## 1
Amino acid sequence: MSSTIDLGIDLGTTNSAIAHYQEGNVVVFKNPINLKETLASVVAFKKDRIIVGDKAREMLQKSSQNVFGLFKRKMGTTETYLKGDSMETLTPIELSSMVLKELKNFNHKEVTTDSVVITIPSAFDTIQSNATKKAGYAAGFKEVVLLQEPIAASLAYANKSNLDISDGKWLVYDLGGGTFDVALTAIDDGELKILDHEGDNYLGGTDFDKAIIDQFIIPELEKLGQFDNLVNDLKLATGKYNRLYYKLIFLAEEAKKMLTTGTVAEIEFEITDDQGKDLEVYLELPRATFEKFIAASIDRTIELIDTIISRNELSQTDLKCILLIGGSTYIPYVREKLKAQYGIEMNTSLDPTTAVVIGAAYYAGIKPKRIKPTTTSTPTNIVPSKDFKLAYERIVRDDSGLLIIAAKRETEGLQYRISRTDGGYDSGMVAMQAQVTLDLPLVANTHNGFLLQIFDAQANPCFQEEIGITQGKFSIDGQPLPNNICLEVDALENQTTFLEPIFKKNDILPLRKVITKQVSQTILKGSDQEIVIKVFEGDIDSIPAANKLIGMISLSGEHLERDLVKGSDVELTLEITESRDLKVAAYFTLTDQEFENTFSSSESNITKVILLAELQSFEANLNQRIKVLEREGNYEVAGRAMSIKADIESLRTTLDAVVEDQTSDDFYILDVKKREIAKQMQSVFNTSFLTKTIEDYYEAKNRTSDWLLDKDAIEADRKAFEDATANEQKLLRDGNITAIKMKMNQLSTISQRIARRTPITNDDIEMTYMMIKFHPFVEQERAQALIEKGDEALISKNHNALISVINDLSKLKSQEGNNDLFKNKGTGLK
Amino acid sequence: MQEHYTSLCQIINQIHGLEAKLSGEQASSATERKFQRIKKSFEEMNLYIYNPIGEDYSETRLDCEASIAGDALTNLKITEVIKPIISVRTGNSNEIIQRAVVIVEGK
């Protein structure tokens, strides 16, 4: 355990912070709830709740009864604050101790919090200093060491920005949100001391924001519209523009920040004037104009510096530098004005909002502890968990979750706090009761983590428990989806289709998803070209025809208000209710048209026309396949294919006999048989063609790999190759022929890309021709004529003519060897 | 983490401003749809955008930084959202990276 204090606190008038020194480094602790490094020095009381920080500051402008800020100015006085709804009075010491207790909660590293260094303004007298110490003790610290803020800032600069403070005098210029302080600092007899100081408790950054509103926005608004009493209407709580006023405060602060880096800030908002005219206000605030607004305030700070300089009989050359602290010193005009006035170095290398606390921690890091370390901080005196019982539902569907805390022990002096781990909710410190019932707000459709802490009278945690509540996602009465739901999309490379998963098996109903697809072929308005949205239930890895069609929207050019161009977006919304009704909506962005349909799970969408078309397609593919198998002598597979063909013919006969308006149940039964046939086809041919497809894949991979060795291959090609082959093992193990073929196409694209960059030799052309001329062709006569031309060109060494012949022959190449079993006209979606 | 998303948050804030400007009675369904698509694209990057307009407000809500307009201090409602809530969701973890900047008023 460390023998030095290590912990430093900047107990500021408007903001406070806490930092820790460890092995030469200082870490500013962040608020675990909102991850900010500073805490607003404001305390609010609401019923039995104590709120410290930003949330209390929100209420400060509205209520003087239960919200208290700026109490640091009253430290050491007898002034007390009366809580509006009770007769209880609070001293500045008590309020400061509440801020200190809150800062202790930032301590996430579980460092000891027995001893602390707390900074005070250089203007604080002995009584004010003692009051600050008392606040520290009231917050549970056993040892409190005070340090003047300018000294802390000087230490921070000395340690973090190599400021040489071995000799000389310098100024610490502290311009914060609401106050200004300046201190003359020096090394005197080897000790860092404040020689003199001045300040103004009513000068700071918030005055600059208000100047932007009063001197710029309001006059501009009065030029743009007609307003009878704009200032009152903005600033009075009952004014009709009071809401806008708070927006303007925000916009003015943003503009001020913008002007720290830019030369012009934009301010945009809307307002309706007294004549009912809507105004879209756009204002440009130049930095030079802003500087005019704040010039008087900055001149005031210079006056105070000059007072110090003359009182101490110094000349400007006696000053080594000016250290800038406080958020308002980010303003370039402040820096420029000081530099122009004093012509000395301006040190701005540290974050001016945390320089004081960093310096306090450095000091704490060298200051030995006087008290004997006794306890560790978090949690200190943990009580047995049986002392508090928690009850809550882990899975809820409401937007809030109920938590009951039952105390099995005395609760006098105890406080609890519960916060959501995403930083969206914090109860504040609340007095503990024998039983507490809380409604915890939940983020929809996700897991919500909470941390419950119970604190003793010294604000040390004595009990804590993590709570997890899942909202919406896993309803206890929600049904899991029994099968995958997929969308059929085109694999254009091989004129087939494949299934893209939309919802996965065991997802909990109801479900909704919006996906964007592209139109894969242009559909002309009024034409009979179609786009078909088919939703299937079943196995993602199987072909679409082997799955159950549960919803389909078929749209032709007749439905369109203008041409649907290839590549334009289709936004599909798919919803499945708990009763498993499927709703499909398709929105075409180009035509701004929406089509939707709801399909009940009890209704089949199968029609005679669809089934017949599918069976015809199966048969055509089988015929082609059987021809190839017989030529290759693979009579066993060909025989099994013949048997399937017989089943198809039988099913077609049955289907032919069914009248068009037959009840959907009959079509459903026929559809089941069709799917069984599709599965059989896939099973028979997959076994037969998978090996060949894998061989083709390896060939494509090796060919591409060879091309990568070519001097014209670039890094992007290598990266594309790595991406294409990344999941090779899984791809081949799954055995999805369509997926393997798509991967082969990717590899071919890479090799073609390299080939296009590589100059072709005459030998390459002749070799390519010799390979292609012996290939089977679909139009044999035409092919023969081309080959004769090619032979002539070969003899005469006319390589241009030979390239032309190669191109023409390529188009006539027979596709017999193509193994795509379920080639079809596609869906029109990709 | 938060620094990493600063630029994206700025883009989202601009989109939010645009959406607020274009919403209301004049808004077409196509415009609203485009905003939904943009949000969906951000969700694919694990960034969730939430507009708390019209919701109840109390000091326990840390997902909003509020300015209170009017007289009321209790029974508050969010009447204007200058910046939306942005959170990053990965698996079971949800982290707010931008708190909403809102104006609240009595109901």
## 2
Amino acid sequence: MTSNIVEIDNLSFGYKGRLLHKGINMAFPRGKVVAIMGGSGSGKTTLLRLIGGQIKPTQGEVRVDGKVVHEQDRDGIFLLRRKMGMLFQHGALFTDLSVFDNVAFPMRELTDLPESMIRDLVLMKLNAVGLRGAHTLMPTELSGGMARRVALARAIALDPCIIMYDEPFAGLDPISMGVICDLIRSLNDALGATSIIVSHDVKETFLIADYVYFVADGVVAAEGTPHDLMQSTLPFVHQFVHGEKDGPVPFHYPAANYQSELLNQQL
Amino acid sequence: MNLKRMIKSNLLTSITRFLSGIGYRMIARVWRLGAGTRLFFLTIVYSGESFRRFHLTLREIYFTGVMSLLIIIVSAFFVGMVLALQGYNTLQKYGSSEAIGVLVALSLVRELGPVVTALLFAGRAGTAITAEIGLMKTTEQLSAMEMMAVNPIARVVAPRFWAGVISMPILAALFSMVGVLGGYLVAVPLIGVDSGAFWSQMQANVDVRDDIVNGVIKSVVFAVACTMIALFEGFDAPPTAEGVSHATTRTVVISSLTVLGLDFVLTSFMMVV
């Protein structure tokens, strides 16, 4: 058993002739919380989809628990996915099912557990995220933060080895953000799992991550512990971490000369 | 000379763009047809789940079949009444108004029952299926299912497909029954055609093999086509509000045209065989 549960090796991915990732290398050690950070459109979520086998790399490989993901057939990928749990950006709860049924969904679909045991397990998972009392509600009756917590309970329903979080803090109020932050760390430690967080919220991510990768222009621009990166003098990392308006990532989208464009009436 | 060359070059560019536009559209249509056929075969392959856990299919039968009952029954009633009125108007000129029962029954069982049911089904249940699956895709529910190692074709598509295939022939049969009843109410109590002649002529002239079985075959074929089009459009919809709205519109347009086209093809074969 290797010490890294997920390894990304010289990975390139692109479509329509444009490369989004150009030779990325990453390692996700067991039991750690690892963050992938970068600006919008830098391909962070695509990396999660590559790890989950939803898309295939153009070059290089992703290994999950020693197995090359894109070499697996459909059954092999489904077996690998049973080791994974994923929290989607907006929860992706099934809107026709109650909170209870949402969390019970993977148990009913993938196991032969009796309904009485599923009931106890669902209540335990919901209790872990503080929403046992909300098990009868429908997803439309939940706030954004509550929906994210239910989705988290569903993601950990089958005690996965890897939990992936796609922008877990996006659009949450400070209280919900703190709750999710705390849950990610505590659930990771309690389950002995490996967490992969994709985010651009520096403060929250740095608070819980053991290691951080910065992705920019299709490559790993920087990596290290949150403490190292806070001290980093690399222009991109400095701009990102301190939220500076201008820097290596320019404020202006590339455009023609301002003066000549104003004088020219044609668009 | 220069102007002449410029006009020639512009004309050539326009023609090339026009032809490449046609080519692009053709390729896109063929690609979608192939993707739809692939989804159909995958749905058949992954259908086991729909029968092993029949409650999933039953739930969809309720939404697509039972919830369509009202529109089917009301439409059938009016269609039957109009058929009787129009039929009587023509038949009485030839002194054969007693044949009104046969005319109503044959029109409904052979053509109007399966065709109008399919058109109403596409408008009511088909659009609902497309919008639901399109929104499930937009809100990442299908991706979530995939990431949970649950096959969305087995869990979402197949139960809806079989629900449509089971529901539509039953709805078409109901349509014909209620239509005949509507025709009877207009022909017998309202116009005064003899009740015995109405039913006995119908009994004597409607054939089980040639009329009823053929009608059932048509409704099964329309059910497969309408449900599959609705499912594919939802599954293939771009994950945006605009994408889902266009997909829903396409479901109605493509289903309606397919049903009418298939009706002609099936009727031709049934006439020959």
## 3
Amino acid sequence: MGELIAFYLLAGIAVATALAMVITRNAVHSALFLVLNLVVVAVFYLLLGAPFVAMVQIAVYAGAVMVLFLFVIMMLGAERVGGTTGLRWQVPLAGALGAALIGGTLFAFLRAPAGLAPVGSPPVPFGDPAAIGERLLTTYVLPFEITSVLLLIAMIGAVVLARDSGPEGK
Amino acid sequence: MELSWWAHLWSVLPEIVLVLAAALMMAVDAWLPEGRKRELGYWAIGGLAAALTVTAVQAAQLAGGIAVPYEAFGGSVRADLAAMLFRVIFLLAGILTVAISMDFRPLRQSGEYYILLLISVLGMGLMGAAVNLVMLYLALETVGIALYLLAGYLRDTPRSAEAGLKYFLFGVFSSTIMLYGLALIYGFTGEIAYARIAQALAGLPAPAVMAALLLILVGFGFKVSAVPFHFWTPDVYEGAPTPVTAFISVASKAAGFAVLIRAMIEAFPTAQANWVAIMAALAFVTMTVGNLLAIPQRNLKRLLAYSSIAQAGYILIGIAAASPLGVAASIFYLGIYTLMNIAAFAVAVIMTNVTGSEEIRDLAGLSRRSPGLALAMLAALLSLGGIPPLVGFFAKLLVFAAAIESGLLWLAIAGVLNAMVAFYYYIMVARAMYVDRSPEEEKPVWISRPARFTLWFTVAGVLLLTVLVYPLYLLAQMAAQAF
């Protein structure tokens, strides 16, 4: 029961911060709302019995990634987004389509709740460092290595895009 | 069964060769003096050719029954004939693309360009082999990120920068939507492997599965540029460097079809009635919209963009048929399409080098200016249009036959009508080359040696396969049995 209350409370905060992040016009505020959202998600992981994943979420996402975000926003001086966006009829349309998507998904789930039983609970503690490390280097070694290739080309790409093209374009 | 370490490595041997080649190229790029950067193209071709050799040997072993299909890396990838044949398509497309890139003027020769190309081929190979959701998503993203960068590679040209940005934005949106679908599937079943998902989905209510399926199809639809997920196609094809456009139009599309076929057949067999209806509708809309919008185009690259959308429609017919014949027809079509589309883009690259423009009217008088080039383009166009003796005709025949066999007669009829519409705009390009005159007729057309290789290879391939239709069909049929 207590867990259920905690869940709904946190879910409310998560949705509210996500909305606030999109709606607010100040990029720094957006980033800070995102930090809050990521922290709430980390608490979800704690509730699910995965403390290590929760800590990684806070250290990597709420910490490192968001510091980089804020740093870039402030360096570019782009904290204020321009007043009007020139998107006039798109806003209500996007709202209607979004509502249709939510409605459709809810319809799909609520129509036959009997068939959608929860898929067994994971072992507790779930995702402890030893287990994650072992999986990464055995079962999931290929996806793990491909991720490193992915990060490598992302880095190459950043260099390509940021490179000074020089006096006559190299 | 416990696999030996060699069996694990064997399943991704082409990818290992490609990673080593990319690493080697980074070192070579650093050592090569500024004036000799063009040679990097040959290094890239060497790496891709080495991987192609490995793949061809593996495919021969699988086709000959010396090796049996199996899953490796904890069920991440499967080594089967379909995965190998798709790799052959990607690697061939890669080699031919490098060859037309080497002397493409606007492209400054640099190692990064080729490395990105190599890595995107690597990702495509894994897309074709992936049999679980994690591998699928990572492979898709590896290909995506490399291609966004390649599309925007001419960063100082506004059109290319715009193409890169557009491709990126559409790409991340569709991949995010697809991720929702994948998350739903995982939430319903608690599984990531296709085969186990298929088992777990059997007991689930249809509307829930349908919701996840639709979200996933957004991501796949983007990759194969099916209508209504095609909006990025003309702008990206027009703005990206032409060799990159050629590569996106064949390799990326083939990779999209590879994951589409495997995911539909292996993970969603229980929802087959649903996805067959979706595929048939997609095929119809895609070919019709693609063909109708191709007619008014004046820019060669935009015309080829809409033409490639329409071609995706024909290939979708084979998938909608949802039969061994349909899958074989789709694989057959993709193989042929790779050759003929790259041939057409090779001509576009050569003409851009010469005239600096991509308008169809600048092809005027090409038959007098360079008869061989005009003939190559004509062969590619007629084959794309599906004119009887050429192999493109057999590709269309197979997908239409598959549709009829599966009771989709209306789709086959729509396909035939579409092929007639398409014939009109292919002939308009041919008319510009053969009938229209231009004051530039006396000027010869310079064709670099690697580009000449691409032209010869693709056109000879189309002509040779016209003779060897049956063996190619048998190969496609064997690959289709892998699913």
## 4
Amino acid sequence: MDLSLSEEQIMIQDMARKFAREELAPVAEQLDHSGNEEAFLGNLKKLAELGCMGLNIQSQYGGGAAGVIAFSLAITELAKACASTAVTTSVTNMVAEVIQAIGNEEQKQHYLPKLCSGEYAAGGFGLTESSAGSDPSRMKTRAVRDGDDWILNGNKIYITSGTYAGVFVVWAVTDNDAKPGKGISCFLVEGGTPGLTIGKPEDKMGQKASHTNTLFFEDCRIPASALLGKENDGFRVAVGELAGGRIGIGSLALGVGLAAMDYAKQYLTEREQFGQKLANFQALQFMLADRYTELEAARLLLMQAAYEKEQGNYFGTAASMAKLFATEKANDACYTALQMLGGNGYIKEYPLERYARDVRITSIYEGTSEIQRVIISRDLLRTVS
Amino acid sequence: MNINFSKQELAFQTEVREFLQDYNDIDGFLSQGPVWPQVRAMFSAMGERNWLALTWPEEYGGMGKGHSYEYILWNEVAYARAARNPLSSGVVAKSIMRYGSDEQKQTFLPKIRTGEVHFSLCYSEPEAGSDLAGLRTKAQLNDAGTHYVLNGQKCWQSYAQDMDFLWILARTGKQEDRGRGLSLFICDKQTAGITVSPLPTVDDDQLNEVFFDNVEVPVAQRVGPENGAWAIIGEALADERHIQFPPGRVRRDLEEMVDWLNAQGLGDDPVIRERMAHLVSKVMEAEILGLRVLEAMEKGRNATVDAAMNKIVHTLTCQDIPRMVLDYGGPEALVNGYRPEQIWRQSIMETIGGGTSEIMRSVVSRQALGLKG
């Protein structure tokens, strides 16, 4: 058994860490407050140039072919500085992976270089609907065949990067008579396609710099070649890709949690009350020990899930366990760290309140904690004869 | 044992509820700054009924009632989300009655009673949060002996942007004298050398920093003896324990969250129902601990430990309720301005301000359990 990272993985981790420190950290607070879109998109472009938008994409399509572990490491490092940038990067990687996994050669050659190179600022993952959040099989968006084209009608909500994604992977019902989940297909819809309208960004609690939009499809006509994978086989793909996305979101949460605790740890060694450093108070020492232990366990669960995926093994349960644990413990870490800073934790002059807001969504999107528990327990009970 | 209010107290509760009909939509409890003019108007209307002086002795124009009346008033106001109890008619007025000069009593008590003037407490400093006795803002008597000259910085002051006067704790003795070297001052906020600067907070409200740059405060505006402030602020704190964390707030949180979950169609989810049942018991715990603080005060018992336990349970419940809703409410619960996410952000403050949970736990372990240290 060898838990150490490869040279390439360490190199990618270092590169992401350096970029996060030098480029993201200085602007993260400003992005949170003002949503400076130009700076945000500029950083996405630079990340693409560094190879971070297709970390697990084969090199012939412009990807880094660095693997899932490297992807997880990079997202954690980016999230330490700016969760909004990290989530956009994670989702774009996921979109690229869907195309790589089920796209035909023409689709891969057309879209993957654009996503990996930054020609597209981001990719969008169009699954969630207002009445189909935790249960996407109940989606209402329809795609109807019309000659050589498909016509899309329906809405998708809470879509990351809606404003600036160059291409969306969109799921829609193509067989009205099939059971839920059985008649869904997957399509590629380019940003700017007539009939696709992007709603204004949601005003969110956290991860404010990343745009989250509603997509409105009104008789949106796309060519037959936009079908991604097999007709009526889209739901299986969505479920599979969400499992990969969970590694990304768990890694992101880990980064935010570590950033919060690292800040609080430093603060404890500097601030004095009652004539001594806060770090001398055992109650605070134990809080520190507990949170770091939990975050380290989260890291190992994420590495385990990433390893299984990289090996081509079934990794759904491992990804759910890692996402559940990492996001919940990262939430705890952010609240603890904020509490350790006292009044300074609550004011916007310090980053702790941003970490706490940014981390909150992580146990909700990409499958809530409750959905992860459903997946884990279902897999566990399935093995009982 | 009887935990019910008397007929007279219940009649007063009814009167308060009727009064609040006109103020139910102020929404100044969770975030007072943006609606201060409305809150101020409500305090004035309370002043007309003499409700800001419920427990004051009659010689100061008060109603001479027991603590239970204050508890009922501010608990109902908290439940109505209208406002928090003003510090002027509590900490400030009660300290002036006990330690103030005749001139201070004549100048301030009538105006506080009617809701005409309001105070901001200036205690905490950047380096003196939990360790208040370590504060450094200096008040130095001038050579003529007529004025104190204040220099220093205060931090995390609630509502200072809107208040008329500052109630300032400053060092008149040596740093090493800690709590024994502090004095209290009243100062008009408009006095030259005072700067109030906003500290935006996670709930889109604000705290403040208050800077003192050679601020001249007449000796006549010192409250109580020089270097004698520690006992004054301790007694003032003790006077207010029954109304600091009124359980009406968490009861209302719970009800709003239940309404929200039902509106989202989540009310029949068994996991949510189980969590809600747990929260109901937490709210009841906060209610009973709130009453226990009141009972201690009414019987003249030291309520320090009861108040610390109440604060721990009350403020964690404040956080548990919205956190539970966000766990199950999906992304809708995270869109800005929705009640669950607003309360989630606001509640972060509750385990920090007014004595952190960690300080409260040390009070309980030391004073209730006798653990040394």
